[in-house]
Design goal:
alpha/beta, 9 strands, elongated
């Protein structure tokens, strides 16, 4: 599959605080990526960086030449006086596409003004606006917010059958299970800050559990090594030779590192 977007070792900071660091990922044709993570981990910021709406403090985001990318925010806003038809025609490459997208999104009256729409129908309008732009890559931030059950089912069908790739930030695990072909979790507890795998959300949960089990085994191995070092220290190394001091320092570093990783994993 052809590569659409390549993101390498990007970082984002706010003042002295690091939101995320050393994040690398790729998006290829036909892939639908779900992106999850704890509140405050930087999911929306990462999506905006991928969309070119925000700049990383380090690293690079490269979009393949000629690729059309469209971003839909959590809470799309429109000029209240504009009609649905006017908004879609302004975004469309061809006038006919506006009518097709309007029908796909479930609008029967294009003369309705944006200011008359509920939050759910504004979200449908934003998605229709994205469709008429015929993207190769669609970035969606919490697209199921404000949508009712029927709207969510419509969006699931739309993405599953779409010719374009997508990256979706969502807290809706059922939605991700029905849509995603790949999953990512942004979390500083991971060594590279991002855990990725191919497959559905259910597949992701299994791979993540395997990762946590491997981390637990590693921590136990480290703890056992530290315990041996502590026992050695307690037996007494009275001769403060360079070698014994180095061993003491190494034991202390392993203990501190082990505690730090345990705390990060627990968070």
């Amino acid at each position: 599959m052809a590569l659409l977007l390549n993101c390498q070792t990007i970082a984002r900071r706010f003042g002295s605080a690091t939101l995320f660091d050393n994040i690398s990922l790729t998006i290829s044709d036909g892939e639908r990526h779900g992106l999850i993570g704890p509140n405050g981990s930087g999911k929306s910021t990462l999506l905006k960086i991928l969309a070119g709406m925000d700049l990383p403090d380090a690293g690079e985001v490269a979009l393949r030449k000629g690729v059309r990318m469209t971003y839909v925010p959590q809470d799309p806003q429109f000029e209240p006086a504009l009609t649905i038809e006017q908004i879609l025609e302004a975004a469309a490459h061809e006038p006919a596409l506006a009518q097709v997208a309007m029908g796909q999104a479930g609008f029967s009256d294009g003369s309705l003004r944006a200011g008359e729409l509920s939050g759910g129908w504004r979200k449908r309008l934003a998605l229709a606006q994205a469709l008429v732009r015929q993207p190769d890559l669609l970035l969606l931030d919490e697209p199921t917010n404000h949508l009712d059950v029927e709207g969510i089912a419509w969006l699931e069908r739309l993405l599953a059958a779409a010719p374009f790739s997508s990256v979706v930030v969502s807290h809706d695990r059922y939605f991700l299970e029905n849509v995603a072909t790949h999953m990512m979790e942004l979390n500083r507890a991971y060594p590279d800050g991002l855990f990725r795998c191919a497959g559905s959300y259910g597949d992701f949960l299994e791979r993540r559990e395997e990762f946590y089990a491997a981390q637990a085994r590693q921590r136990e191995s480290l703890a056992a090594k530290v315990r041996r070092e502590v026992e050695w220290l307690r037996r007494g190394a009275k001769a403060r030779t360079r070698k014994s001091k180095a061993r003491i320092d190494a034991a202390r570093r392993r203990l501190e590192d082990g505690l730090l990783r345990t705390e990060q994993a627990a968070d």
